């Protein structure tokens, strides 16, 4: 939230059988571009001396989304959970 709505990583359609992401993987899910226009995770990088809060939100959906669709996400969310962490340089 301290850097606006910057998307560090977007992954969807992660199989329920997935038990992790591993190095450079999306856990069998599909990735969309982050806010630097690349696929994959782009870590936090606040200016030196600043602390930024980062929020990870996971949504459980009633079905597979196929391609990313905000309307589908909103209509088919069964549960969501978020965790917040801080990062500073």
Description:
By secondary structure, this protein is mainly beta. It contains one helix and four strands, in the order βββαβ. The chain has one helix spanning 70-76, and strands at residues 10-12, 30-32, 51-61, 77-88. Strands 1-2 form a two-stranded antiparallel ribbon. A two-stranded antiparallel sheet has the order 3-4. The longest helix is centred in the last third of the chain and has 7 residues, at 70-76. 2% of the residues are buried.
* Computed CA radius of gyration, to the nearest angstrom: 14 Å
Structural class determined from secondary elements: mainly beta
Beta fraction: 25-35%
The biggest beta sheet reads: 2 strands, antiparallel
* End-to-end gap: 17 Å
Task: Give the overall shape.
Answer: globular
Residue runs with pLDDT of under 50 for 5 or more positions: none
Query: What assembly state would you assign to the polypeptide chains in this entry?
Result: single chain
Question: What do the pLDDT scores average to?
Answer: 90
Which short descriptors sum up this protein?
89 residues, two-stranded antiparallel sheet, 1 helix, 8% helix
Concise synopsis of the structure shown:
By secondary structure, the protein is mostly beta strands.
Give the arrangement of secondary structure elements.
Elements: E1 10-12, E2 30-32, E3 51-61, H1 70-76, E4 77-88
Antiparallel strand pairs: 1-2, 3-4
């Amino acid at each position: 939230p301290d850097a606006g709505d910057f998307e560090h990583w977007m992954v969807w359609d992660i199989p329920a059988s997935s038990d992790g992401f591993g190095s450079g993987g999306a856990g069998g899910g599909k990735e969309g571009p982050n806010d630097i226009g690349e696929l994959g995770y782009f870590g936090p990088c606040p200016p030196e001396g600043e602390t930024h809060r980062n929020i990870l939100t996971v949504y459980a959906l009633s079905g597979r989304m196929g391609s990313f669709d905000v309307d589908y996400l909103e209509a088919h969310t069964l549960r969501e959970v978020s965790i917040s962490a801080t990062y500073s340089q």
